[in-house]
Amino acid sequence: MRFPTVRFAVICLSAVLAVASVSLPADAQRAPETFAPLARQLLPAVVNISTTQAVQARPGRPDAPEMPQAPPGSPFEEFFRDFFNRGRPGQEGAPQAPQGPQQRPQRRGQSLGSGFIIDAQAGIVVTNNHVIDGADEINVILSDNTSIRAELLGTDPRTDIAVLRIRTDKPLSAVTFGNSDEAQVGDWVLAIGNPFGLGGSVTAGIVSARGRDIRQGQYDDFIQTDAAINRGNSGGPLFNMAGQVVGINTAIYSPSGGSIGIGFSIPSNLASRIVAQLRDGGRVRRGWLGVNIQQVTDEIAEALRLPGGARGALVARAQEGGPAASGGIRSGDVILRFNGTEVREMRNLPRIVADATVGVQVPVVVWRDGKEETVTITLGELPAEQAQAGGGTPAPAQPERPVELAGLGLLVAPISDELRQRFSLRPEQRGVVVVEVAPNSPAAERELRPGDVIVEVQQERVTTPAEVQERIARLRQQNRGVALLGVEGAGGQRFVPLRLRGERGAPG
Predict the structure, then answer these.
(1) Within this chain, do residues 362 and 492 fall inside the same structural domain, yes or no?
(2) Are both 266 and 314 inside the same structural domain?
(3) Sign of dihedral through CA atoms 133, 139, 140, 142?
(4) What is the mean pLDDT of each run of 10 residues along the chain (508 residues)?
């Protein structure tokens, strides 16, 4: 009975030896013995950003000093809270607050962050917008503790970037932006900050992931790193091993406020373009296409017979008078390439368009009517706020009765004055209104609701229930498995793919 045991041990050992003998790729980088020379070179260019703004004093204690605003999660937050609460009214041994109305004088609140110098001659400093947002006064503290009043050149809240300028006779150190597209998952990086005014701090790690969307805005494309990024490091640089800035440290994922090895940095290729515009003109000009888009799902791709599966961005609406509509892009088009760049998925398109030059003509490849077409668009500038389309006259009530769309779980009706009032439809609304949605039906699974208006079936306009019925019947005759509905609802216009079932609800 001992033989199988010996054999098993030999097999396990062989497996271990086989794994150990796997050779590393020729271009694999080994961990450096020390980061000290690189850190010593880069630290002088990283600065502390200190801001102050007017805040109201605590009620009942107009003479009490204001607690310093240490960032949440910092090691000083609890200490400051305990120290400044000792004499507050309601605490043991504390004086009672005076009675009657008290005027609340303004005091100065303080917050801290990090930044870095990119032009020593001109004194240009980059940081996060949220570090300086709302500040009345901004000071840049150099690595030798020299404090210099800073001038705000411009901010971009959409990407959380701000650019400052300082003027000094002191010699400054500067760093340069690198190519963040070359940063690969597994590459070594250094995160350097100057938090809480304590001086520069350095942490090392690797690039953990690329292209992270953390739901901060439509331009999210973060580099994720496990280099420790703590509160107060916001606005500091993320360096590659060549000493180039490949990211701006901006956010962390942490339930406690401290680093757990999940930090996010704005890629330098995005940041450098924003910084250049803020430095030169004080604001950012972004390209604007003028479309409402949605993700192409497998079912939508099937309905449109799009080769290659789910890809691109589906145009739910081309805004009237916008660059896309003026150039010939229509609702139902799938944008596959923009200005030569492939649109892999919906969220890629806003960033690609925003980076394009305003006023230039760009080719846009769309999937339409079962084939690729190229249209030329003159790109507009993204307005500060999108205007809502309006106008038109009410549609006359139609005499048709509600119609059940068998197998889909929908009861639809023509738009009447009564339905327009019941569902708060716009006066100019056209289409066929959803009156009822059957539970556990394909329509319910796709979250269609009473009051939604069907305006298209398979990219053909519909205005009556009979037209909807006819289009659905035609798709069934063609043995199509999915019907693509263009729907307008409370959340705007979107395309909804519905699986077609048989007349009695069996799979069709």
Answers:
(1) no
(2) no
(3) negative
(4) 40 38 54 87 93 62 46 45 48 47 52 90 94 89 92 90 94 94 91 77 88 64 83 88 93 62 87 92 89 88 90 89 91 92 86 88 93 93 51 38 81 86 83 88 87 88 85 83 86 84 42
Q: Determine, yes or no, domain membership for 291.
A: yes
Beta bridge partners of 366: 335, 373
Can you read off the two tokens belonging to residue 291?
A: 């479309």
Do 347 and 413 share a domain, yes or no?
Answer: no
Structure tokens at 229: 């990024």
User: Is 130 part of the annotated catalytic residue set?
Assistant: yes
CA 133 to chain centre: 19
What's the CATH number where 217 sits?
2.40.10.120
**DSSP assignment, residue 331?**
T
pLDDT value at position 157? 86
The reply to whether 306 and 348 lie within a common domain is yes
Domain boundary pick from 249, 264, 284: 284
Residue 354 pLDDT: 86
CB 289 within 8 A of CB 322: yes
Does a structural domain hold residue 5?
no
Query: Per the structure block, which two tokens stand in for 408?
Result: 């889909």
> Is the domain of 325 the same as that of 416?
no
- Both tokens of residue 411? 């009861």
Number of domains in the chain: 3
Tell me the two tokens of residue 421: 């009032």
Q: How far apart are the first and last CA of the chain?
A: 61
Same-domain check for residues 266 and 311: no
Say which residues have a Cβ less than 8 Å from residue 248's Cβ, sequence separation at least 6.
Answer: 126, 127, 128, 161, 235, 236, 237, 238, 265, 266, 268, 271
The encoded tokens of residue 83 equal 């120290």
Phi then psi for residue 42, to 5 deg, are -95, -30
Select from 234, 262, 284 the last residue of a domain.
Answer: 284
Do 258 and 322 reside in the same domain of the chain?
A: no
Query: Is-catalytic flag, 452?
Result: no
Indicate if 160 belongs to the active site.
yes
Prediction pTM value:
0.61
> Where in the sequence is the domain holding 449, given as residue range(s)?
403-499
Angle between helices 348-355 and 268-281 (to 10 degrees): 40
Choose, from 160, 226, 333, 452, the residue flagged as catalytic: 160
Q: Is residue 371 part of a domain?
A: yes
Domain assignment present for 28: no
Which pLDDT does position 30 carry in this prediction?
67
Catalytic residue among 74, 114, 130, 259: 130
The Cα 449–Cα 438 span in angstroms is: 10
- In this predicted structure, what is the pLDDT of residue 446? 87
User: Do 317 and 355 have their domain in common?
Assistant: yes
Single-letter code of the amino acid located at 260: I
**CATH code at 301?**
2.30.42.10
Catalytic residue among 180, 201, 208, 234: 234
Q: Looking at residue 100, what is its pLDDT?
A: 47
Residues in Cβ contact with 351 at an 8 Å cutoff, skipping those fewer than 6 apart = 218, 219, 221, 270
**Main-chain dihedrals φ then ψ at residue 501, nearest 5 degrees:** -115, 170
